[in-house]
Amino acid sequence: MQNGLEKDAEIRSAASLMSVGSMPLTKKRLPSPDAGRMGSGTEDNNRESLRPPSLRRQTSVQIVQSSTSTDPIKLATHVLVVEDNLINVKVIKRQLSLKGYSVSVAMDGRQGLDILYEDDQHPSELGRIGIVLMDIQMPVMNGLDAITELRASEKTGKVKQRYPVIAVTGNARKEQTEQFLASGFDDICVKPYKIEDVQNRMEALLLKGS
């Protein structure tokens, strides 16, 4: 049998439990909207601490490798632009540079061939030229004469490697494009063009030749 003091103690204990159970959540008690999301710092740290040490090291290495990866085609490609229009040269050089390519410039077909002959024997500090963008209508030597001489030099062994060359022209008639391809150009890019089109054609030729 309980005495009066014991009953009073039970009543006070029950009242205390009821008040705690009905206590409203304050702002600090509300769960964070980010709680449970992947990437929250505390949860990720807790999970990471449960990984074996070897796995934690492997994960960190993979992240570093992923963040420093770069397109190998762009790293390896030195582009020669053969174009006599200074505005066109400035635009294409800037666009290609922003895409990650190294760019050299020749102002006519003769100068372009001289650069290629030198590159075949002694590449510049920019690396060996990987592809050529060549205008058709130029002074001193036009694009058709230049590509004809280049392909002949490759056949005779004067030039050891075969350079992929894209004709850049405003002439898009069927008979003209057929003439360009028959002369030795690998592809044709018609002005006005978008840099993405030029890049896609360049990389298609580079992958084909790799």
From TrEMBL:
GO biological process, any: phosphorelay signal transduction system
Q: Which UniProt keywords apply?
A: Phosphoprotein, Two-component regulatory system
Which portions of the sequence form the region Disordered? 16-68
The UniProt entry, under InterPro entries, shows: CheY-like_superfamily, Sig_transdc_resp-reg_receiver
What PROSITE patterns is this protein classified in?
A: RESPONSE_REGULATORY
* Protein name in UniProt: Response regulatory domain-containing protein
* Classification via SMART domains: REC
Report the superkingdom from the record.
Eukaryota
Q: What Pfam families does the record point to?
A: Response_reg
- Compositionally biased intervals (Low complexity): 58-68
- Residues that the record marks as modified (4-aspartylphosphate) are 135
Response regulatory domain location is 78-206
This protein's record includes keyword Phosphoprotein: yes
CDD domains registered for this protein in UniProt:
REC_hyHK_CKI1_RcsC-like
